[in-house]
Amino acid sequence: MSRLPEAVEALLEAALVAEFTVLDGRNRPVVHPMLPLYVGDGRIYLTSSVLFSRKLFHIRRNPRVALSITDPVAAPVARWGAVTIQGEATIDDADPHSGWLWLLPAWARKEPDIPRLVKNRWMLPLFWERAVIAITPRRIFHWPPGGTGEPVVYDLSEGG
Question: What is the tens place of the pLDDT at every residue in 47-84?
Fold first, then answer.
């Protein structure tokens, strides 16, 4: 997987909240506020508690998802613009106790208290049983800063 456009990577690295959209059993969109994590490999990562997670259920049923970063309070859209990323999600929940710890450095860059909380995870053990959601982008819509017109579209699908 190749790297994403520079402005999109910058948004992913800086955003504290993204709107993560999955499709329910009737193919209606369901939106979840999520912390996007980017490690530079062209995929976007999210973590989710495995306990009673409807988003994981929906992804297993239909892996087509979207992630948008549009909130000027949660991300520097004035500097990098706004983005919607359409793609396919996979779930890794093989080891919910520690299979997500490799994302801890990216998470800690955004939430510096996370390493301290992880050390005390025995206090809220069910919250810390987490799955990793990996989004492989297929299409990116990027609105440059101040852009109100048509977005720049990147087609990352096979043969696109």
Answer: 999 887 899 999 999 999 999 998 877 778 888 889 99
Residues 142/8, Cβ–Cβ less than 8 Å: yes
Q: What's the confidence (pLDDT) of residue 123?
A: 65
